[in-house]
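Researcher: Re-running this chain for the archive, since the previous output was lost when a drive failed. Same request as before.
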Amino acid sequence: MSGSELLKTLLYTINNVLQQEKYKAALAVVKGFRNGAVYGAKIRAPHALVMTFLFRSGSLKDKLKAIAKATYTHSRNLAYFVFVYKGLQTLQEKIQGKTLQSHAFLAACLGGWLVFGENNNINSQINMYLLSRILFALSRLAVEKGYIPQPRKDPFPMFATLVWGIVLWLFEYYPHTLQPSLQSSMNYLYHDSNVWHDVTDFLIYNKAKAAAAK
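Model: Regenerated structure tokens:
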């Protein structure tokens, strides 16, 4: 059998397995792992690229290593989480013979503890991102279920007022409580703009080259 024929046979066998209903649950877990890895890399790589070159000092090699490490960590963790979550959901459904809302919650709780429970920069950013989203979602769900009344006016202006008031108060007086990346962003915006020596570090650069090199 030639190489091309062997490849065709292999592809036929794989495609045949992919069409088998009895393997669908297990294959969905595998594809979930794949999608988690790809999505994590897509999300983290551009973010790490921008933040590293804006705020991180060091050689080009060090910066590229930091970008690669952050991208790998995000991609790996998301892939692991999707694998655990979908696998546990499938297992619970098989055991109980039906799908329950508690299955998603329990599977995600265990996956979150195993994968995102370590306190590091990547996990911290992901968990805080999700926290903001679920607070919005729970507020909408509470209105939808009738637990709290429908606001007469759009609450978003008040929400924005409090968010910006609180975060700038924290930044100015208790900056150590904020995440390092947020501190860096705010230092760039609000404190670095108080310092300049001439037109080069007033309009062209944020800091004079001699100061930036220190």
